[in-house]
Design goal:
This protein has helices at about 5-35, 60-80, 80-95, 105-125, 130-155, 160-170, 175-185, and strands at about 50, 55-60. The protein contains 7 helices and 2 strands. With about 190 residues, the chain is mostly helical.
């Protein structure tokens, strides 16, 4: 394990706090997007966006994909304890901000998918960061989609769109994750 200098330790903590703040902001952003951003916004349903040709999904899926990646980065910078606390806090934020009809679905999907993400990411992260983020993100994407749609709507009609939309955000983050890993190695920033 690399021994950090005080400056690199401060940098790791500062970046971790930034990732934590962004992680917490993804939840209100996702809730806002579902009601306000999309090419189609039915009166009693979520606003939809195209995530692939002929495939629509609620717009909040973009932020949930980002949240899965940010949770991994919080753990990398601040440790599994802080990441676990962030998941619990995120679930509470999700429940507090979700429309009343979606409180249980939103909080349960967030809690289950983020802890599954943590369980997959943790053993893989030290050796293969990019693989860890992709594998944990994809598991989280599927679980979040299945749990949310089942509880919220009793239907998996948007499942493919949800998975594709969230997975696109996980995949889109890979160049940043690879760059971060290389920079960490160069600067001697050790994972928490």
């Amino acid at each position: 394990m690399t021994r950090e200098t005080p400056a690199t330790e401060r940098r790791r903590r500062r970046e971790g706090l930034i990732f934590l703040a962004l992680f917490c902001l993804t939840i209100p952003a996702a809730n806002w997007m579902v009601g306000n951003v999309g090419t189609t916004c039915p009166r009693n349903g979520p606003c939809l966006i195209p995530v692939a040709p002929g495939l629509m999904a609620p717009s909040g899926v973009l932020m949930i994909g980002v949240a899965l990646v940010l949770r991994d980065l919080v753990q990398r910078r601040l440790g599994v304890g802080v990441a676990s606390a962030a998941v619990i806090a995120g679930s509470l934020i999700s429940a507090a901000l979700a429309p009343p009809a979606l409180v249980i679905a939103s909080a349960a999907a967030f809690l289950i998918s983020e802890f599954a993400d943590l369980a997959i990411y943790t053993p893989l992260a030290r050796r293969r960061l990019v693989t860890a983020v992709v594998a944990s993100g994809l598991v989280g994407v599927v679980l979040d989609s299945v749990v949310f749609l089942s509880l919220a709507f009793g239907s998996l009609d948007f499942l493919t769109g949800q998975i594709v939309g969230k997975a696109l955000m996980v995949v889109a983050s890979m160049p940043f994750i690879a760059l971060l890993r290389r920079r960490d190695q160069r600067l001697g920033l050790a994972p928490a």
